[in-house]
Amino acid sequence: MSITANELLGLWEGAAAAPPAERAEILLAFQCEAQISSLGGRNAALVALRRRLFGGMQPLRCNCTACGAVAEFTIDCAALEQALLPSPGANEPQRLDAGGYRIEFRMPDLTDLRRAFHACSDSDEFVALLLDSCVLRCEREDGRQSAPRDLPTLVAEALSRRMEELEPGASVGFDVACPECGAQWTAPMDVGEVLWAEVQSHAERILLEVDALARAYGWTEPEVLALSPSRRTAYLQLVGRPDGRVRSVS
């Protein structure tokens, strides 16, 4: 279900007044009444909101990591939304046997991420805090207990890969090739940040339309927003002409 220009401005106004770190949560609340805790579910819901607001095909761009050229591509939001959803049973306790260790764990949620983000000083500490929160039991094959942050690197990497398999939508990235130099890389995407940029851009465009028509015709904001998009466009075209009259080409 699409939304009106007035609703979009209300969404933009509420998110713009919030700290940057909380804007994605405001957008998410607009899309979902129920609280979403999983990272993949959160990203999928934000993609669904993008599709609802602006359509199913989303143009994106990024800069080449080698030469800085702009690479442009388009994604199918419906397909991405499905790909980001957590695997069935991902929210249940999991077990991994790797490198002589038996590990019971659960998937990290938004609360874990916020807590680790605010408490850590670097990326290593961030990972350690997440392990402390999400590893329920960790022991060697001989039964000796081990602290999650003391796991060998290869075992920690195996645990990370298993988490990615269970919830591939926890992080979003696209394989991109540079049109200029041919370099290839995986471009990460912050779904909430990108969506907010689109909401802000569309809201600013609507405000400019309101300003132009209010100046030209003396209409109030509610009167301008009550017009359909096609009518607003038609009036804006008239405003851009000297007198708005149709003339013969002869």
Q: Any chance you could write out the topology, listing elements then pairs?
A:
Blueprint: H1 5-16, H2 23-31, H3 39-54, E1 57-63, E2 70-76, H4 77-84, E3 94-98, E4 101-105, H5 110-119, H6 123-134, E5 135-140, H7 153-166, E6 172-177, E7 184-189, H8 191-217, H9 221-225, H10 229-239
Antiparallel strand pairs: 1-2, 3-4, 4-5, 6-7
Helix pairs in contact: 1-2, 1-8, 2-3, 2-8, 3-4, 5-6, 8-10
Question: What does it look like?
Answer:
The protein is an alpha+beta fold and 250 residues long. The chain has 2 domains: 1-59 and 75-85 and 188-242, no CATH class; 94-166, no CATH class. The protein is built from 10 helices and 7 strands. The chain has helices spanning 5-16, 23-31, 39-54, 77-84, 110-119, 123-134, 153-166, 191-217, 221-225, 229-239, and strands at 57-63, 70-76, 94-98, 101-105, 135-140, 172-177, 184-189. It has a 3-stranded antiparallel beta sheet with strand order 3-4-5. A two-stranded antiparallel ribbon has the order 1-2. A hairpin with a 6-residue loop joins β1 and β2 (70-76). α1 (5-16) packs antiparallel against α2 (23-31) and α2 (23-31) crosses α3 (39-54). The longest helix is centred in the C-terminal third of the chain and has 27 residues, at 191-217. The two termini are 46 Å apart. The model is unreliable at 243-250 (pLDDT under 50).
Our Rg estimate from Cα atoms comes to: 24 Å
Mean pLDDT: 89
Point out poorly predicted stretches.
243-250
**Spatial arrangement of strands, main beta sheet:** 3-4-5
Estimate percent helicity. 40-55%
Biggest sheet, in brief?
3 strands, antiparallel
Number of domains in the coordinates?
Answer: 2
The number of helical segments is: 10
The separation of the N and C termini measures 46 Å
**Strand content of the residues, in percent?**
15-25%
Helix- and strand-based class? alpha+beta
The geometry reads as elongated
Write down the secondary-structure element order: HHHEEHEEHHEHEEHHH
| Total beta strand runs | 7
